[in-house]
Amino acid sequence: MNIKLIYTTVAALSIAAMAFYQWDGETEKVNTELDNATATAGYWFEFNDSIDSGLSKIIWPVEKGSEWDENSYQPIVDFCHGICGHVVLSGAALDFDPYVGVGFNVVGYASLTDSTPVPGDASAWGGIKISYTCTFAPVLELDLGEDVNKALGNDKPVYKLPKSTGGTTKEIPWEEFAQGGWGKGEKITGPEAATKLVAIRFKIQSRDSTEGSFHIYQIGPLPNKPLISDAPRALRSAPGVNTIVAGRRVSFTGITSSASVEIINLRGQIVKKGSVQGTSALDLSALDAGVYVVRASGNSVDFSGKIVLK
After folding, report:
1. Do 305 and 261 form a contact (C-beta atoms < 8 A)?
2. Ramachandran bin of 108, using left for φ above 0, alpha for ψ from -120 to 50, beta for the remaining angles
3. Containing H/E element for 205?
4. CA atoms of 250 and 205, how far apart (whole Å)
5. Domains parsed from the chain with CATH numbers
6. 3-class secondary-structure state, position 100
7. Share of residues in the chain with pLDDT > 90 (%)
8. What is the pTM of this model?
9. Is the pLDDT of residue 9 over 50?
10. How many helices (H) and strands (E) does the chain have?
11. Are the C-beta atoms of 112 and 248 separated by less than 8 Å?
12. What are the pLDDT digits (tens) for 14-63?
């Protein structure tokens, strides 16, 4: 398989690079600033070796789920002031060491009905800064999507992080991410991978029947890259902006001036437009029950999220 042809295909879907906001362990979403219209980028997810018949797992300190999303990681983030868990590695019949991990998508899904993650150009981040504890020696992995990963022989660029029980911070330029060299597929450098990045993954892989723990409490671009700090954009990233659904009305907390609001259904159609200010609410009585994406934009806010109408 010619990886250049794959890159030509995914490039049509990629998004231009911007620096992203440093995540300090307060919300379940990392604001990558590369989110597409689906508003699905940046949400933490977990992965493990079950696809290869492994039995490894993460035991969370509290149950996932919220009133609006049964898979929400916000309760874990609130408990940990970051994302943390207990790791149980179980390889069963695997012919390699078992693994688990957590990560977040850079751009998000192709659409609200197609959960294929889309690549984006993260070159401007310069690399990744991460603060964490881990009783294993984890790796940061650059996930490039199913097709490109396959072309690489699944030998994705990684950076090997040290074990740390007391907490450490590492700053890793894209140039220091490298393939392990064991794959028989195409070759790619860290900077090349950054231009077609699907997800950042924190991966723990070690001997069968071992246990430990991890805690990620900060992640962001390299400090010498342009963190977004101007006042209007800082307000837009404020975690105090949230939706409140009461019956068929939606209102917001944290919006201090007038904002335009769009309600989008699962087919990507805008089904309602309006404006809110302060505690005012938008009437959604004409909409059917279901899941919708809400976008609010104005001088003091640039917010997107999901709501559920019952």
Report:
1. no
2. left
3. strand 199-205
4. 43
5. 3-220 (2.60.120.260), 231-309 (2.60.40.3080)
6. strand
7. 54
8. 0.70
9. no
10. 5, 19
11. no
12. 333 445 778 999 899 999 989 888 989 999 999 999 988 899 999 999 99
